[in-house]
From TrEMBL:
Residues 1-19 form the signal peptide. Pfam families: DUF3298, PdaC. It comes from the Bacteria. Keywords: Signal. Residues 39-142 form the Deacetylase PdaC domain. This is PdaC/SigV domain-containing protein. Residues 168-238 form the DUF3298 domain. It comes from Sungkyunkwania multivorans.
Length: 248
C-alpha cells in the first residue's frame, strides 16, 4: 500500500513539474487599417502580422513587452514618448500622415507593413524575426529585418554575450566569412570594398538571429553601407559555429 501511495505522489509531482516547464506557444496577431478619407491618390496603410507568446504569465509578459516595444518605433512619428500600445502607435502614425499631408500639401501615400514570426525555438532559445517594409515620404522607402532572441525560462532578451561561449572567437570567424562573401582580402581594410565600419573595424550587426539551419547576421540600412547598396547580410551554418555557441 505504501508503495502505491509513493508512486502516486511521484506521479503528481512529475505532472506538476511538467506544467511548470510547459513550452511557450505563440499566437498570430493580424490587423489591417487605413487612414480616414482614404482615396486612390493619398492614403496611409498599416498591415501588421506578428506573434505574441502564451504560457507562463511572467515569461509571456516579458517577451510580449519586448516584441511590442520593437514594433512601436516604426509607427510612432510624433514626439509623444508615452505611447506604449500598438493601437496608440497606429493612431500616431495616421495623425502624423494627416499633418504631413496638410502642412506640405503632399499627395504621397504612407504605409507600414510589419511581419513577425518565430524563426527558431528550443528549450534554450527563442528567436523572433521582424520584417519591416514602409514608406513615410522622402526619396525612398525603408526595409529592414530585426531579430529578438529570448531566454525561454525568463523571457529576457539574450545579448551576444549570452549566446556565445567564445564571443571574440565568433567575431573573428564572422569577419572571415564576411570578407570571403564580399571578396575583401584578409590584409585589406574592411572598408576597402565600400563599407563604412566605424574606425575601420569589423563589428557584428545590431541584430543576430537563428533559424533551423543557420545563424543570420543582418545589418540594418545605413549601419555599414548606404541605403542604395541594399541589405547586407551573412548566414553561417551551425556546424561552422558550434564550438562558439553557448545557447542553441
Amino acid at each position: 500500500m505504501m508503495k502505491k501511495v509513493l508512486c502516486l505522489l511521484l506521479l503528481v509531482i512529475s505532472l506538476i513539474g511538467c506544467e511548470k516547464e510547459a513550452t511557450l506557444t505563440f499566437e498570430a496577431i493580424d490587423s489591417k487599417e487605413s487612414s480616414d478619407h482614404c482615396d486612390d491618390e493619398s492614403c496611409a496603410e498599416i498591415a501588421l502580422n506578428y506573434v505574441l507568446a502564451k504560457g507562463d504569465e511572467k515569461v509571456q509578459e516579458t517577451i510580449n513587452e519586448a516584441i511590442i516595444s520593437a514594433i512601436l518605433p516604426y509607427l510612432n512619428y510624433s514626439e509623444d514618448e508615452g505611447i506604449e500600445t500598438i493601437d496608440a502607435a497606429k493612431r500616431s502614425f495616421f495623425k502624423s500622415f494627416e499633418e504631413n499631408k496638410e502642412e506640405f500639401e503632399s499627395e504621397a501615400s504612407w504605409y507600414a507593413f510589419i511581419f513577425g514570426d518565430v524563426s527558431y525555438q528550443t528549450d534554450q532559445l527563442i528567436s523572433i524575426r521582424l520584417d519591416v517594409e514602409m514608406y513615410v515620404g522622402g526619396a525612398h522607402g525603408y526595409q529592414s529585418t530585426k531579430y529578438l532572441n529570448f531566454d525561454p525560462k525568463t523571457g529576457n532578451i539574450m545579448e551576444p554575450k549570452d549566446l556565445f561561449e567564445d564571443l571574440d572567437g565568433f567575431i573573428a570567424l564572422a569577419e572571415g566569412q564576411f570578407r570571403n562573401k564580399y571578396k575583401i582580402p584578409e590584409v585589406a581594410n574592411i572598408n576597402s570594398a565600400g563599407f563604412d565600419f566605424e574606425n575601420d573595424q569589423f563589428h557584428l550587426p545590431e541584430t543576430i538571429g537563428f533559424t533551423k539551419e543557420h545563424i543570420v547576421m543582418t545589418y540594418k540600412p545605413y549601419e555599414i553601407a548606404p541605403y542604395t547598396e541594399g541589405p547586407q547580410s551573412l548566414t553561417i551554418d551551425y556546424a561552422t559555429v558550434e564550438e562558439y555557441l553557448k545557447k542553441r
